[in-house]
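User: Hi! I'm working on a homework problem where we have to compare a predicted structure to a textbook description. Could you give me the structure for the chain below?
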Amino acid sequence: MKFLQGACRGEQRASCESCAPRGEPRAYGGEPRDYGGEPRAHGGEPRAHVGEPRAYGGEPRAHVGEPRAYGGEPRAYGGEPRAYGGKPRAYGGEPCAHVHWRRKHAVSPDKITGMADFLDLTEAQLVQFMQNWAAKLSVHEAALTAIAPADVTQAAADSTLVQNAINAVNQIREDAREWTQMKNLILYSPAGTALPGVPTAATWPAHPLGAAAAVLARVRDLANRIKADAAYTEAIGQDLGIVGTGITPGTDAPTLTGRALTGFQVEIAWLRGGHDAVKIQSQRASETVWTDLTIDTISPYVDTRAPLSPNTPEERRYRAAYVDDDVVTTGWSDVVVVTAQA
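Assistant: Happy to help. Predicted structure tokens:
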């Protein structure tokens, strides 16, 4: 039976040193129960809470004379403190470090400096960034030893790859809309409707020479090396586009963009702006009350709800506010209106 620190309850009260005279046996009957070195006496010998050891391996567990430390000292699991990031897990004395960093994996490193992450971009902005990145690396290559000729070549391939990938997916989405419209005409159009022609499907362009995955990880790694270069200046960083925009988290409401996808789905995009996440709300059709949709950390968010009236286009209104440490920290954005359709 385990004892809580400084707590004697019910049946335990009579056998605790702080509540009963020392020396009276705590009797459970029968033979002693052996846990290791010395017997833990449940009948023959009294169980002492102070003077005699509670033998689970030879060390006494003291309830009065020596406190069981839940504060100040770490609680040891095998002799060493159980560490979460280098600090002991303490029950009172030191904070448990992992609690305070439980969401930091979703936060840009630049948030600590009050700057928005330089890669906190929409996909359209990312295409522009990559074009500038590829062009300006060759400009600053001579001044910065961190930039190798291979980096310039790779950046050119990355720029083309990113543009091809984003444009191809956008075109495929538009193709999906056309194919869905053709399907709806084939299935649901009134008698006498002409058979629609088959849409032309987009093809994914061939990858450029030297293309490789993990483009943004590669960009961030090179940007960090550039910033550590002895010849690096703020002006060079601005020219390369690797300096945060200086947005202070918790002040400005997010800016939303929305567009209708196929199947009555709606895509809502935003910039993180150095914040943890956004809270998105919506109204549909004649609704007047805002409904919480999500707290999201990755843009874009796709609203996949079916329309209130089946197979009927409906107007949807969206607004959002930034969230930090699970709390809404800004006002609401301007309302974005999108018509969801098949």
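For your comparison, note the following. The beta strands are 33-34, 39-40, 257-260, 266-269, 277-284, 291-296, 301-303, 314-324, 327-328, 336-340. The two ends are 65 Å apart (CA to CA). Good luck with the assignment!
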